[in-house]
Amino acid sequence: MQNKSTVSWKCPSNIALVKYWGKYGRQLPSNPSISFTLNNAHTITKISYEYFDDPKKSIELDFRFEGKPNKSFSDKLSNFLNSIKEDYSFLKHLDLQIESENSFPHSSGIASSASSMAALAMCLLDIESQITGSNNIDITKASCLARLASGSACRSVYPQIAVWGETTDIEGSSNLHAIPFQKHIHPLFLSFHDDILIVSKNEKSVSSRAGHALMKNNPYSKARFEQAFLHLKQITAAMNIGDIDTFGHIVEKEALTLHALMMSSDPPYILIEPNTLKMINAIQCFRTEEKIPVYFTLDAGPNIHLLYPDDVSNQVSQLKDYLRGLCVDDTIINDQVGQGPVKISN
Omega before 268 cis (within 30°)? Predict the structure, then answer.
């Protein structure tokens, strides 16, 4: 046994532009997706660990979220870690103390599982690199590990823009892990803002995990998966040449399709709220009247993501002043395309 050591990583959330909704097998996507990696919406995870020469029957885990014990999260993490210990055998030799905190409300539709599970994956592979002496983290392996914990987390280990899901239109794309995609993108999109308008801080009534499962019997699932492949082809082409109008059209269509799928599930459910719709109407009216390229998207929750390039940020500020009044406690998380995970020195 060695003395206790500590690793800590900050990992961002991401916002899907073409949505992943529906899965099969071991966390494999039914359709490909593309996302912006964010910056300010992040999770910081710290793991203190002890290494034992002899493997243990089960992984010992002490988990705290934002300074407090959380049995529900702890049980989920323990079950997950024990489910992957045969693939990641170094885990069998560890006792873990995990502390995690978010810069935004969890389980409210801002992909907290993406940032938290990406941070977990980076910490665990950092521990493995210390144990083996390699002092190197394989980012593709981190994406694979993050995917097993939460599908969308596999995109959060990369900077700026990532694609997840196999498609013949993108070389190197895979269902097993995401790939970085910023080299294929016009610089206009690398300057994008994503201001998250908090309509509700409450935990969602239906989890994303349950929502994915409901896609299996959704009568529109086949058409949706075909649409997603087409949308990915169209949006990557638009982002390559700087076609912001096509980009915005697809992004908004994807957001509304996602919530239409929820409403057509069995049982159906609704996550958007009255102020969500008010914001959507205000954004579309502002864009039409002012000729400013500002768009919205939604994750699996009621909160609006306001997307626009940096060069129109001053003009968009007047729209944000109005939208702030529709947010709970006037809360807006000002965010932008970010550079991915960062290791935090002890």
Answer: no
- Residue range(s) occupied by CATH 3.30.230.10 in the chain: 5-181
Q: What would the two tokens of residue 216 be?
A: 């299996």
C-alpha–C-alpha distance, residues 212 and 164, integer Å: 16
Per-residue pLDDT tens digits for 183-240:
989 999 999 999 999 999 888 889 888 999 999 999 999 999 999 999 999 999 999 9
Separation of alpha carbons 346 and 4, rounded Å: 13
On the question of pLDDT at 108 being above 70, the answer is no
Q: Burial code of 268-295, b = ≥16 C-beta within 10 A, e = fewer? A: eeebbbebbebbbebbeebbeeeebbbb
Which of 214, 100, 197 is closest to 149 using CA atoms? 100
Phi, psi of 14 (to 5 degrees): -140, 160
Distance CA 79, CA 262 (A): 27
Q: How far apart are CA 232 and CA 124, in angstroms?
A: 32
CATH 3.30.70.890 spans which residues of the chain? 187-333
What is the H or E stretch that residue 321 is in? helix 313-324
pLDDT computed for residue 201 by the predictor: 87
C-alpha distances out from residue 286 to 10, 90, 199, 200, 255, Å: 35, 54, 19, 23, 18
Q: What is the mean pLDDT of residues 256-276?
A: 97
Cβ–Cβ under 8 Å, residues 11 and 43:
yes
Residue 318 φ then ψ, to 5°: -70, -35
Q: pTM, whole model, 2 decimals? A: 0.94
What digits encode the pLDDT tens for the residues 326-343?
999 999 999 999 999 999
The answer as to CATH 3.90.850.10 being correct for domain 187-333 is no
CATH architecture of 5-181: 2-Layer Sandwich (3.30)
196 and 322 Cβ atoms separated by less than 8 Å: no
- Rounded to whole angstroms, how far apart are CA atoms 65 and 247? 37
Neighbours of 230 (CB within 10 A): 13
